[in-house]
Amino acid sequence: MLEKIPAALAATVAQEVKIPVIGIGAGNGVDGQVLVLHDMLGINNEFHPRFLRRYLNLYDEIKAATAKYITDVKSRDFPNSKEQY
Q1: Catalytic: which of 3, 16, 46, 83?
Q2: Can you tell me whether residue 24 is helix, strand or coil?
Q3: Are the C-beta atoms of residues 11 and 31 closer than 8 Å to each other?
Q4: pTM of the entire structure?
Q5: 8-state DSSP, 70
């Protein structure tokens, strides 16, 4: 695995070695890519490396859902009578 190295160097390494080379922030001249799921889905909003492409922004949705859950628990609305045995 090659992480955060110049793309041209990563491509050269991938051409020279006989094993698959996986990159993370090393350009598209390697054999495969890694993009961490939590980063890709925007669960952590404080991490912003150049190679990160966010496909969703779940941070805001998770934060809002968690706040709603806390409110519902504190108000004793959760669990309600339909959510109990």
Answers
A1: 3
A2: strand
A3: no
A4: 0.71
A5: H
Q: How many CB atoms sit inside 10 A of residue 26's CB? A: 24
Spans of all domains in the chain:
2-83
Any catalytic annotation for residue 61? no
Any alpha helices (H) in the chain, and if so which ranges?
A: 7-16, 37-40, 58-74
Interval 58-84: pLDDT, tens: 999 999 999 999 999 999 999 999 999
Phi, psi (degrees; rounded to nearest 5) at 16: -85, -30
Residues 6+ apart with CB under 8 A from 34: 1, 22, 23, 24
Residue 42, by phi and psi: left (phi above 0), alpha (psi -120 to 50) or beta?
A: left
Tokens of 34: 């890694």
